[in-house]
Design goal:
single chain; 7-stranded mixed beta sheet; alpha/beta
Length: 347
């Protein structure tokens, strides 16, 4: 039997989110039923609820930073038991057959992975995310949350954590590498923590110095204001890797000029508008302009274990469900340090 649960949904594009009920499918053979305890608010929730990235499915229950407790498992489930601490990130299925899926890169499934919300599952039913009391997910797309991290600060790791961990690992951030993080927000603050824990020399590039003290506390070695032209003069040709976490269009040529030969500028933030680039910015210095999505399931589990080993989660502001619309506006105003997390008991 399906289960009726309370949730917060956007009834239409750009409409305020409101309390409603949704149906969760009956637990199938390999499914896990999760009592959601906390759900992070990601900027991509706002992009999708307001159709900033294109046409969307409504009503929409956002939320792909989910932490909770297993309350039921299907008869074929082997990876989880009732009472386990678990998380769900940005996807809940993929084709499982393409080369990427077989390589543990389900996030790049060639047939398209199934998003946790604003997507259609393999039966053509819309998926609903974590702003809800419960969720049912195939065990292969559920993550175990280590005991060393509390569930509230673990929730944002399921997107903000893995979205920065994956490119930092792929581009070999570590001792001897100079890494910069553009933006000191929900993703950026996790990028600073992870890059520091990997052993890199970390620089934050932010519009202003208003968060400098926080940045240094979280592990940054240097902090520069990009509104100051001297920043681009001083750092020119000094960095190995830059991770851009911002959702606003940037002057990519200016940031590429900060890279050493063979350096890489990797975008994990996705502006709604196209950006332009003079190709001489990458030709000179054999530089790379790249993008990166989330991580696969195996890498996401690796990230969670890494964060637990190093004793950190996200920096959060816990809110009740009736504050979601206010939180959206505050995210757009960069007025959060550094991730809103919904206490789903208030739904």
């Amino acid at each position: 039997m399906t289960t009726t649960v309370a949730a917060y949904a956007a009834p239409a594009a750009k409409a305020p989110l409101e309390r409603t009920t949704i149906e969760r499918r009956a637990v199938r053979e390999f499914d896990v039923l999760i009592d959601i305890k906390f759900a992070g608010i990601c900027h991509s929730d706002i992009h999708q609820a307001r159709e900033g990235w294109g046409e969307a499915i409504f009503p929409m229950v956002p939320g792909h930073e989910i932490a909770g407790i297993v309350s039921e498992v299907g008869p074929g489930v082997t990876k989880f038991r009732v009472g386990d601490r678990v998380g769900v990130g940005c996807m809940v299925d993929s084709c499982r057959e393409c080369d990427n899926c077989k390589a543990g890169l389900e996030q790049y499934c060639t047939g398209g992975n199934v998003g946790t919300y604003n997507a259609l599952d393999k039966n053509g039913e819309p998926t609903y995310g974590g702003y809800a009391e419960k969720i049912v997910v195939d065990e292969n797309y559920v993550l175990g949350i280590p005991e060393g991290i509390s569930l509230d600060v673990a929730a944002p790791l399921l997107c903000a954590g893995i979205t920065t961990y994956s490119p930092l690992k792929h581009w070999n951030a570590g001792p001897g590498k100079k890494v910069a993080i553009i933006g000191m927000g929900g993703l950026g603050h996790m990028g600073v923590k992870i890059a520091h824990a990997l052993g890199a020399e970390v620089t934050v590039l932010s519009q202003t110095l208003s968060k400098k003290e926080d940045g240094l506390k979280l592990g940054a070695d240097h902090y520069y204001a990009t509104s100051d032209p001297k920043t681009f003069e001083e750092l020119r040709g000094t960095l190995d890797l830059i991770i851009s976490t911002v959702s606003a269009p940037l002057n990519l040529g200016a940031y590429l000029s900060l890279l050493r030969t063979d350096g890489a500028l990797v975008n994990v933030g996705a502006p709604e508008e196209p950006v332009s680039l003079n190709l001489f910015s990458v030709i000179g210095g054999r530089k790379t302009l790249a993008g990166s999505g989330i991580g696969g399931i195996r890498e996401t589990q690796e990230m969670l274990d890494f964060c637990a080993e190093h004793g950190f989660g996200a920096e959060i502001e816990l809110i009740s469900a009736d504050q979601i619309n206010e939180a959206y506006e505050r995210v757009l105003a960069s007025d959060v340090r550094y991730r809103f997390v919904i206490d789903t008991a208030t739904i």
